[in-house]
Write a structure and sequence with these properties.
By secondary structure, the chain is mostly helical. The protein has a domain at 153-332. Helix content is 24%, strand content 5%. It has six helices and six strands, in the order ββββαββααααα. The protein has helices at 157-169, 214-232, 240-246, 284-297, 302-311, 316-332, and strands at residues 94-95, 103-104, 127-128, 135-136, 178-182, 195-199. A two-stranded antiparallel ribbon has the order 1-2. It has a two-stranded antiparallel ribbon with strand order 3-4. Strand 3 (127-128) and strand 4 (135-136) form a beta hairpin. Helix 2 crosses helix 4 (284-297), helix 4 (284-297) crosses helix 6 (316-332) and helix 5 (302-311) runs antiparallel to helix 6 (316-332). The protein is elongated. It starts with 93 loop residues before the first strand and ends with a helix. Bound molecules: zinc ion (5 copies). One zinc ion binds at residues 96, 98, 100, 102, 111, 113-114, 116. The site of one zinc ion has 5 residues, from helix 2 and helix 4.
């Protein structure tokens, strides 16, 4: 059977929606999420015939305020004396938050009619920027709204450097994981195994760096990386050896939020005997994540780990968990 013949459709060129770096942008994003460049949305193609004197962005003669920077651009004889819904060149998406009656196009931060600040819900995004609280997607390096690090990694450089070093000395090669500081929960969604979300409450809103609990953060991040590592190596969970020591990882589990677990504990606890910590006993997936955390924070040094387990009188199965992980990591290299 031959392939159906189709007319080749040329892609529609939209050069004005690309950043200088080549990245495709959404109209009126102040920053490129890929390279962080500041954008100026001019009156390309002379649609309105007007640009703001202050910021250079496209405006309408009818406006009284620049909807992008908030500058007063009222001009007698041009500006509309009554608020309009959508003058030429602009779309109507919502009315002004303050009830002046004027219309706005997403994502204008200011009302072009009364000049007041507006809020938009960015519900089409996957997450929230830890710097400005507006919508960002997981892949974005830079926030398209405030231009800062959209991952929030810039807020926890010490913790991330420490975790990276611990993984390296434990001989665990990076598997493409991506740490994101986000509001609300800490966890890894099995549908996006490389995305490791860390609750930003540890960091955002803290006045000084001393207020940030670094050791808790390092513990939390390595625990979450354990989940990500396991999802990434899921086939291993099907092996006889894995099942024997960690059990059935598919067992019903309503994805726990790890935020409130005490990851500051740096010592192995003596109870329960069959798990490295009490939290590890809640589910095989948590068991693995906790085993991973201790393995990595002990730099993969098995002799030290096994001595510590001996002191705490752990059951042989706990030794076997660490040995299974150790052998798996060595076998992967
Ligand atoms: Zn760019
Ligand atoms: Zn302006
Ligand atoms: Zn208004
Ligand atoms: Zn932002
Ligand atoms: Zn967990």
């Amino acid at each position: 059977m031959s392939k159906p013949r189709r007319k080749r459709r040329e892609p529609i060129p939209r050069p004005e929606l690309r950043c200088a770096c080549g990245y495709e942008l959404r109209r009126y994003w102040p920053y490129c999420p890929d390279c962080g460049r500041r954008q100026v949305w001019r009156d390309e193609g002379q649609v309105t015939g007007a640009e703001c004197y202050n910021c250079g962005w496209v405006v309408s003669d009818k406006f009284s305020y620049c909807p992008w920077c908030g500058a007063d651009i009222y001009e007698e004889g041009y500006s509309s004396e009554t608020p309009l819904k959508a003058p030429k060149g602009f779309k109507f998406h919502a009315r002004c938050d303050w009830g002046c009656g004027g219309g706005l196009e997403y994502p204008m931060p200011f009302c072009p009619w009364c000049g007041k600040e507006q809020t938009w819900s960015d519900d089409q995004f996957e997450g929230t920027c830890p710097h400005c609280g507006r919508g960002v997607d997981d892949w974005m390096n830079w926030c398209p709204w405030c231009g800062k690090d959209a991952t929030g990694q810039d807020l926890i450089p010490e913790a991330l450097t420490r975790v990276r070093r611990l993984l390296a000395v434990s001989r665990i090669k990076p598997w493409g994981y991506r740490v994101l500081l986000r509001p609300g929960v800490s966890g890894v969604d099995p549908r996006w195994p490389k995305i490791v979300e860390i609750d930003q409450r540890y960091v955002v809103g803290k006045r000084t760096k001393d207020e940030i609990p670094w050791s808790t953060l390092v513990g939390l991040i390595t625990h979450e990386l354990g989940h990500s590592f396991l999802f990434h190596n899921w086939r291993w969970t099907r092996t006889e050896r894995f099942r024997r020591v960690f059990g059935e990882v598919d067992k019903a589990y309503r994805g726990v939020d790890d935020t409130w677990v005490d990851f500051q504990r740096r010592r192995i606890s003596s109870v329960p005997v069959n798990h490295v910590t009490a939290y590890a006993a809640t589910h095989p997936q948590e068991d693995f994540a906790e085993t991973f955390r201790f393995y990595v924070t002990r730099r993969g040094r098995m002799r030290e780990l096994l001595a510590e387990l001996g002191q705490k009188r752990k059951a042989p199965v706990v030794y076997e968990k660490f040995l299974a992980l150790h052998d798996y990591i060595r076998g992967r290299r």
